[in-house]
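#struct-pred
JK: can someone run the complex with copper (II) ion? inputs below
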Amino acid sequence: MRSIRPVAVVVLASLCALAMPRMPAQQLSNSPELRAKGHILSLTLHAGITGDGKDSFYFNGQPSAPTLRLSPGDQLKITYINDLPAKPLERCLIGPCLDMTNLHFHGLTVSPDRPQDDVLDMMAMPGQSLSYVVHIPKDHPPGLYWYHTHPHGESYQQVLDGMSGALVIEGIESYYPELAGLPEQILIVRGRSIGRGPLAADLAQRVHLGSNACGGESEAPSEIFTVNGALRPQIELAPGERQFWRVVNASADRYLDLQLEGQTFEIVAMDGMPIVRHDTNHRTRIANHVLLPPAGRLEAIVTGPTAEAHEHLISRCVDTGPEGDPNPAMILADIVPQSRPESTHKISKRHVKPDFGTLDLAAEEKAPPRFTVTFTEDDKGFYINGAKFAPDAAPMVHAKVGTFQHWRIVNASAELHPLHIHQVHFLAYAENDKPIAEPLWLDTVNVPTGGTVDVIMDFSDPVIRGMSVFHCHLLNHEDKGMMAKILFE
Ligand SMILES: [Cu+2]
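RT: done, C-alpha cells with the ligand placed:
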C-alpha cells in the first residue's frame, strides 16, 4: 500500500536528506535507556509532532523513544500525554487522522485490562493523557519486546512515523551464560517513505535498493529501512568479535529477511522467547538469514567479519505475493571493523531463576483446530473470518484461561499476512500441513499466501484475563479491518 503522506512533507524530508553531504557515514545512535529503581520504572512520555510534520514520541523534551529495561517482578508506570494537534496534519488510511493515541506493550505477558496493556478502552484524544501501570510477572520470560501506539485506523501512520521503542525484560543470560560480558546492540528497524521522483531515487541509491522485484508485486518500492533512526549507519564490530544483537522489526508493514553478509546468526531467542526455555535439546539455532515479519524480534550472537570484508547488514528481497507490497533487498547498515568503545552496554550477570517448561502438547497438536482464523481481502477492505473490526463488536472468540489450544491460521489471499495476538505466545508447529522441524514459540507468525499455519496458543497464564485482540501486523491491513476481539475468561 502506498503512503498517502502529503506531498509537501515528503519533499521537505527528502530535501533535508539531500542537503547532507553525499554518502555521509552515519553513526549508529542509541536511545536513552531507563531502568527500574526499587522495582518501579516511572516516566512521562509525550506524543507530539516533529519539525517535518511526523508523529513522534517525546521524552525529556526530545523526539525520542527511550529503551525501557525492566526485570521480572517490576512495575512500569507511564504517564502518556497526547500533545498531537487537535487539527491533524496527516491523513490516515480510512479518512482524516483524529490524532488519538495509546500504547501497546507488544508480546508482554501482562493483563489486557486498564491500566495495563489495553488498546480497546484506553485512548487519548489530543490534550488528554493516559496512566499506565503494567505489572511484569515474576515468572516473565526474559527477552526483547517493544512498545508502539495502537489506535485502530491510525496505527499504520503513527508506527510508520516512528512511534515505537524497545523494551527489554532482563535476565536472558541466566538461560545463556555465554552472553555475560558480550557487548549488546539494540537495533530498531523502522520503515521510511521515500516518495517519488529523483529525490526518492537518491535515497534508494544510498541503500542499494533492489530494483528487481522478487515476487509478483507490481508497484514501485516506496519505503526504505532505517536503523535506530539513521539511514545506513555504521555498526562497529571488530574481526572475530562476538556481540549480542537484539533486533526488532518496527516497520509498519514491511518484512525483514535479515542477513549479516558472510556470517551466521546464532539465534538465542525469537519474539522475546529464549529458545532453550522450551527446547533444552536445541539451545540455539544457526541461520544464514532470518525472516522477521513486522513486529518480529531476533536475538542472536554475531561474529565480526575480517577487516577486509566490508560486509553489510542487509534485508533480502521478500516475495510478498502477487497482491503484496514491494519488499526489495537493501542495505541496512555497514559493518566497520573498529572495536566498540568501552562505554557500550555489556550484558551483566543477574540472578533470574530459569524456568524450563517441558510441555506435552502432542495430543492438542493432533486434535482438530479449536478455532480457525481466515484472512481475506477485497477492494473494500481486509477481513478476519469475513468480518471487519468494529470497536463495539462482540468478541469473535472466547478462550478459557488455563488452556493450550490448537488454532489454525488460513491465508485465503494472494499476499502475506503476519498474525499477532496480544499478550500470548504460541508454538508454530506446522506450515501448509507439514511439521516444522524445530518449532518456535512466537507472538507474530507469517502465514504464506494461500497457505496455513498451525499453532498451539498458550492461554495458561492467569494474568491474561479480559478483552483483547488478534490481528494482521501489516498495520495498513489492521487499520482497514483485519483485527478481531478475543475474550480470555
Ligand atoms: Cu495483512
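RT: quick notes.
The chain has three domains: 31-170, 177-336, 362-488.
The longest strand covers residues 40-49.
JK: thanks, will look after standup
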